[in-house]
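anyone seen this seq b4? input:
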Amino acid sequence: MRTRSLLTGVLAAGAALAMAMPASAAEEPTPMVVGGHDATETYSFMVSLQSGGGHICGASLIKADWAVTAAHCVEGSEPADLSVRVGSLEHASGGEEAGIADIATHPSADLAVIKLDKAVEAAPISIAPESGATGTETRIIGWGQTVPAPGGEAPATLQELDTAVVDDADCSGITGESEICTSNPGGDSGACYGDSGGPQIKGTEGSWELIGATSRSGNSDSNCATGPSIYTDVSALSDWVEENTAA
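predicted toks r here
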């Protein structure tokens, strides 16, 4: 597994992560995520994983008191170090807040489940039975920075980008049976620093299903969105997720 995750660089861009983006004068959605735009709907299952009150990673609410994220997002952290904000379009306000009671990480994949210290009212997302074949249309959402180079600004408002599953051969260092290679539309759009752990979903408004968790770049470029991204295949690992969230 390659080590350059989409969490790397967040500390360097810490000030940007705490800042709101300036309002755009344009009527069209402001380009964000790197090529995305402001969320067009409220995703009740969207989670901002936070440390010290600041956003560090995304996550997906899969049960009233459980969320799934990337393992590298929680590496070296104790539950008391982390908290979440659930179901808001803003990572710094709104939604519901909770602490973390427990963390379990997958033994080999970039995947973790986090138990909240209380149940929340937000509606969770179901895990899809399978992630889908090459060409499956997907969407990624997150609060990652909005310019390709490390240390860029990050939005206050949740961003979304429509993507697709592409051939594993397009991603370097991918583990095909447990990871998804995801397109970078136009050759310059995709996940970036701060999007780690966040959801890759498929379906339509009101019937989204979770298939992936943002893991890392699919090439060796430290700039984001210059190639496809790699997502941990949550669908393929759903048995492990269920076993570790059954309590």
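The mean pLDDT is 86. Residues 14-20+29-39+127-233 form a domain with the Thrombin, subunit H fold (CATH 2.40.10.10). kinda curious what u guys think
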